[in-house]
Amino acid sequence: MEQHAVSFPLRVVAQDVVLALFITVMQVQGTVARVAVDGAERPLADLGNLGFALLVASGLVVAVRRRWPVPVFVTAALASLVYYSLDFPDGPGWLGLFVALYSLAAYGDGRRSLVVAGAGVTVLTVAWLVAAADIEPRAAIGWVFFRIGASVMSVALGESVRSRRVIAAEAQERAELAERTREEEARARVDAERLRIAREVHDTVAHAIAIINVQSGVTAHVLDKRPEVAREALQAIEQTSSRALREMRAILGVLRDDNDGRLPYPGLGQIDELTAKARDAGLDIKLEETPPAAPVPSAVGSAAYRILQESITNVIRHVGPTRVTVALNPGDDVLEIRVTDEGRRAASGDDPAAPQLPAQHPASTGSSAQPGRGILGMRERCQLLGGELDAKPTPGGGFEVTARLPLAPSGSRL
Q1: How many other CB atoms are there within 10 angstroms of residue 340's CB atom?
Q2: Considering only CA atoms, which of 24, 9, 119 is closest in space to residue 67?
Q3: Section 235-251 average pLDDT
Q4: What domains are there in the chain, each with its CATH number?
Q5: b vs e for 80-102, b when ≥16 Cβ sit within 10 Å of the residue's Cβ?
Q6: Is-contact 219 233, C-beta < 8 A?
Q7: Angstrom distance (rounded) from CA 13 to CA 282
Q8: How far apart are CA 328 and CA 337, in angstroms?
Q9: Confidence bin at 355 (pLDDT 50/70/90)
Q10: Please, which pLDDT band fits residue 112 given cuts at 50, 70 and 90?
C-alpha cells in the first residue's frame, strides 16, 4: 500500500514520542513484574536479551504511528509473532500492537487499511492459538482470546474515528462550497443588477436626449420668427428632462437602502405618453393597439415599453420627422410589437421648422450584421424573456422593428 508522508505539528510528534516511551516502559516493566510472580519457562534475557528487544521495538515504533501506520503495524505484529512463538512470558507486551492496529485504521486510507488490518489480525490469531496449544494452566488461554478480542476492538475504534473525521471534513468542504456558491451567486446578482441599471439608464437618457436635441434645434430655428413655437419646444424640453430625471431616480433608487423616491418601472400604460412625446419631437405616429385579453406581466410590459422607446428614439435620432406606425398585438401566448417608419422624407416635404438630422438608421448605415447598441439592447431584452427580435430595412426605404415577447416569459428580467 502506498504511504504518503504527512507533516504533523511538533506538539503531535512530541505526544507520540511520550506515548511510545510510556508503552515501552509498561510492556517491559509489566512483563518483568509478572515473571517475578508467576515465573517463566524462557526468561526475557534468553537468546541475547531477545525478549527485551522485542518488547522495546514494539513499543518505540509507536512514535511514528501517524506518519507510517502500515510499517508500524507490520513491525509490531512481527514482534508479537516472534515473541509468542518463542514462548517468552506473557504480559502486557501487546500494548504497542493494539495502538498500532488503532493507528492503522484511524490514519490509513479506509478500505485498504481495513484489509491489511483484517489479514494481520487473522495471521496473529492463528499464530497465537498455535503457540498456546500446550499452555499450562489451560485457564491461561483466556489471555489469548483477550488479545484477539482487543485487536478487533482496536481496529473498530480506529475505523470509527477515521469515519467521523472523514464525515467532518466532507461537511466542512460542503460548507465552504456552499459559501463560495453564495458569494458567486451574490456577485452574479450584482452584475445582473448593474447590467439592468445600465440598460435602463441607456434607454431613459438616450430617449430624453434625442427629444431634447430635436426640440432645441426647433427652438433655435424658430426663436425669432415664431416665438410661440419656440415656447412650446422649451416646455417640451422641460417636461422631457423632468421625466428623465424622475426615471433616473427610480432606476438608481435600488442603490440606496431605503425605498424613498422610487417609482414603478414604466409599462404599457405609459405608451400614450411616450407617443405624445414623440409627436412633439416631430414624428407622425399612428398607434394601432389591441387591448390584451388578460393583464400583461410586469416584466413583459416593461420590456415592451423599453423596446418601443428605443425604436422611437432611433427614428428621432437617425431619420427625423417621418411617419411611424406602432402596432401592439397581444395574443394568447405572445405579445407582438411592431414599429415601422417610412424613412427620411423628401426635401420638398420637410418641415421648415424642424432641424436637419442624419437620414440613416444605425442598422442600415453599414451591414445589418453589425447593428447599433440600441438594437442589441432590444434583442437582449427579448432573449431574457425567451422572445425574439427582428430589425431590418423595408423596401420603401424605411425600417421595421418586430419583437415577440412570450406572455409567460421563460427567462428572468435583469
Answers
A1: 19
A2: 9
A3: 70
A4: 10-179 (no CATH), 181-406 (3.30.565.10)
A5: bbbbbeebbbbbbbbbbbbbbbb
A6: yes
A7: 87
A8: 5
A9: very low
A10: confident
Each residue's pLDDT tens digit, 336-348: 999 999 888 765 4
Strand partners of residue 286: 325
pLDDT, average across residues 306-321: 85
Compute, in degrees rounded to 10, the torsion defined by CA atoms 193, 196, 197, 200. -160
Q: 8: Cβ–Cβ under 8 A, 6 or more apart, which residues? A: 66, 67
pLDDT of res. 318: 81
Cα separation of 382 and 367, whole Å? 22
Q: Alpha helix locations (H) across 223-264?
A: 227-252
Look at residue 264 in the predicted model and tell me its pLDDT.
57
The dihedrals phi and psi of 341, each to the nearest 5 degrees, come to -115, 160
Could you tell me which of 334, 309, 336 has the C-alpha nearest to residue 409?
334
- Which conformational region is residue 7 in: left (phi greater than 0), alpha (psi within -120 to 50 degrees), or beta? beta
Specify the pTM.
Answer: 0.47
- Cell numbers representing residue 233 in the block: 419646444
Residue pair 244/280 in contact (Cβ under 8 Å)? The answer is no
- Helices 373-384 & 298-318 angle (0-180, nearest 10): 170
Radius of gyration of the chain (CA): 44
Query: What whole-number distance in Å separates Cα of residue 189 and Cα of residue 186?
Result: 5
pLDDT at 368 > cutoff 60: no
pLDDT value at position 373? 67
Of 29, 34, 257, give the one whose Cα is nearest residue 140: 34
